[in-house]
Amino acid sequence: MKIVVLDGHTANPGDLSWAPLESFGQLTVWPRTPPEQVVQRAQHADVIVVNKVVIGPSELEQLPQLKLICVLATGMNNIDLEAAQQRGIPVKNVKGYSTYSVAQHVFALLLALTNKVAAHNAQVQQGAWSRSPDWCFTLGTIPELRGKCMGIIGLGAIGTAVANVAQAIGMKVMAFRKKPQRGAPPGVQLATLEEVFRKSDVLSLHVPLTRQTHHLIRNEHLRLMKPTALLINTGRGGLVHEQHLADALQQGLIAGAALDVLAEEPPRRGSPLIGLPNCIITPHMAWATREARQRLIQGVARNIAEWLAKRKARE
Question: Do 221 and 116 fall within a single domain?
Fold first, then answer.
């Protein structure tokens, strides 16, 4: 069996092994593949593994040998699922591999906003502490998170993990979920979307990007929030109307934001949020701990193994 990984660099830049996939047959790994080379590189593959490479009807039509598509991610919006189904090609993703890594990054972003560790370190390195007349100094007021309200929009696996960490450090947790009948973890108060916007001291987004959630963070909701509130987005860039958020940050409608995702990635044309002093941006890295990426590769291997087992059972 021939397996081709079309864009493997982000999942494995060299610190992990592809051995779990090599065990199934001949493996070819491309760090990146431009759109015009997708068909050429995948021409003789039985299985292709993609992260963000787009596979549409045109590509599928030119890959008659293709039998399985594995996605090195949870989201599958880069695959034309209907076209794949019409050709009888299953598409498999990996769920839950990054839950704890993303929750960890949520609090890294939150603490970057509140404790400003990087900014304080920069001042120390530049000699500010050495010149200080006092034995300590701060760059501004540092809030204690205990007792503050962590608002969560979306109570899936990641949202629930964030809720657990928030409670562990003494925060109150309020959450909105699309289907409230599913209930909530112990200690988490379910609320309407408007209540979450109004009452949150910290608001963290954990919903998929759909027509309904596109630009969920926009003027009308930002104006409901406290002027001291902080927004964190580790979901999808499209959840936020970037110009509306930039305006809100500049006007003091909310105090700060920390984002791991943007509407355009990489932001080739820039973003109104880049350069704002009260907005922290990281390059879509919340998912990318070594352990999460290892689980991701193992998850793809499990998907191939399960697919092979089903094929053998039909033969």
Answer: yes
Domain range spanning residue 234?
Answer: 99-281
**Mean pLDDT over all residues of the chain?**
97
The residues that are catalytic are 236, 265, 284
Alpha-carbon 239 to chain mean position: 12
CA distance 116 to 277: 12
Domain identity same for 44 and 183: no
Report how many domains make up the chain.
Answer: 2
- In terms of pTM, does the model score above 0.85? yes
Q: Phi-psi category of 142—alpha, beta or left, where left has phi over 0 and alpha has psi -120 to 50? A: beta
Shortest CA distance to 274 belongs to which of 242, 248, 252?
Answer: 242
**What φ, ψ does residue 67 adopt, rounded to 5°?**
-120, -20
**Neighbouring residues of 221: CB distance < 8 A, sequence distance ≥ 6:** 193, 197
142 and 261 in a single domain? The answer is yes
The answer to whether 173 touches 188, Cβ cutoff 8 Å, is yes
The answer to whether 26 and 48 are in contact (CB under 8 A) is: no
Sheet with 172-176: list strands edge to edge. Answer: 188-190, 172-176, 149-153, 202-205, 230-233, 256-259, 279-281
What's the pLDDT score for residue 315?
75
User: In 3D, which of 263, 296, 280, 266 has the Cα closest to residue 107?
Assistant: 280
What is the tens place of the pLDDT at every residue in 133-182?
999 999 999 999 999 999 999 999 999 999 999 999 999 999 999 998 89
**1 contacts 25 by C-beta, under 8 angstroms:** yes
Calpha distance 163→160 (Å, rounded): 5
